Amino acid sequence: MAGDGSVKLIDEKGIRLDGRKVDELRPVNIKIGVIKNADGSAEIRMGKNIIIAAVYGPRELHPKHRALADRALIQCFYRMSTFSVSDRKSPAPSRREKEISMVISNSLASVVLTEKYPRTTIDVYLQVLQADGGTRTASLTAASVALADAGIPMRGLIASVAAGLINDKAVLDLFDVEDQKGSGDLPLGYCPVLDEISLLQLDGVFTVKQFEDCLNIAIKGAKDLYEIQRDALKQKYTDIRAEVEVPVKPKTEEPKEEPKEEPKVAPKPVLKVEKPKTEEPKPSKDDKKEVE
Amino acid sequence: MSKVIAKNHAIVIPGDLLAEGPINYGEGIVKRNGEYYSSVVGLFQDKGDFIQVKALRGKYLPRPGDLVIGKVTEVGLTSWIVDIGSPYTAILSANNATEKRFDPINDDARKIFSLGDIILTKIASFDRTRDPMLITNERGLGKLRGGRLIQIEASHIPRVIGKKGTMINMIKRLTRTQIITGQNGKIWVNGKKIEDELKAIQAITRIELEAHTQGLTDRIRDMISEDQQ
Predict the structure, then answer these.
(1) Are the beta carbons of A292 and B163 separated by less than 8 Å?
(2) Domains in chain A, please, with CATH?
(3) What residues of chain B score a pLDDT lower than 70?
């Protein structure tokens, strides 16, 4: 991983090849519930990376002798599609894929409350559809969102991002070219709630100062990423709420006839225009109001 | 002094700080250093002296005494293996299946429950070391004939039933169907007409989708009665 000077990765103004600053994440988009068959799922798009995470379980483990008596086993299956990179990736499971599967499952096991489901397995499938550097960190980010979507109890989410060295400077979230040409790479998995590091790998030669810079910049990046994860998880439910609920109605358990009447009819037409859906909230009939 | 930080009925995610200080707490919460954090994606409920997080998704965990609907997946000589949609497969032993004593030499287990039968059953025992045991030898339990079976999130079953059964009774009345809800998220719907069954299923699916919102009973009532006109 020796950095060669053949490509100028950062210009004089500190702008990188893809136009980012040194401490800037790639544009991230996380969607949950993309795989309907799975118990929980997430899709992450981070720069050019596209990764799908699907969680099945907790479910029975076969062969049974691998089951743990006191907690659930977390099994990760990280796979890169043959078409995810420009040189066709061999479909055979590689040493690298096995390693990444292992580090991701170990990282997730540190936050999942596995002791709630003894003798079971939680399977996390990670399929890389398009790769552009930093897929292990993006996979871990998506996996923790998918686990939360599956309703699996956790102590907190893991946000994962890499930092690296380019021209002896700490740079956040390397993409493919920077990863190849840069002189070091430090993938980090971080749980902002617990302030715990659950994954830390290092490739290249770092001074202590450089290591600390990279770690700090990566933790900062992970905290930003966590906000995106949290929005992704809440979005689905707040959207449904906004669509069907009457705005600003203080919740009381008391019987009420009048306060429900006008506000219900008024805002509905506005909502209809904004979000056409198959299940349209119907304008309610005022005479049929009763207690909930 | 206890202090509740999260808003009542807020959507929370794993790791969200909910409250501090001594307070009674229920499901979906982990306690760490005297602080209470959510452990699941769910709906935060603050009931004054008691807080909990109702998960919005998740596998059904058996609880002794629960009524569940299961499917027979394996028939043994003196037992059945039943899929109840939980991480653990449930076992119904022949002694607990009928009120009569089961004699393995003369009686045929297949005559009682055959492969693929849908049964209404009760969880007799379950703990983290052993798989759940079922019983069907109580009144009202046993094979369900006809009808349709749907699966929703187990955590939304209380919403489908409603406070003191208001929701489920309303759907039964308005759609003229028989409905049996299993705590494991399986719901059996039986009506004289197919349209009635579909209507009820449509209502239940909508409850599942909007389970975390308020004023749901009114909306479901409007939805069913509007279509009938």
Answers:
(1) yes
(2) 28-241 (3.30.230.70)
(3) 1, 229
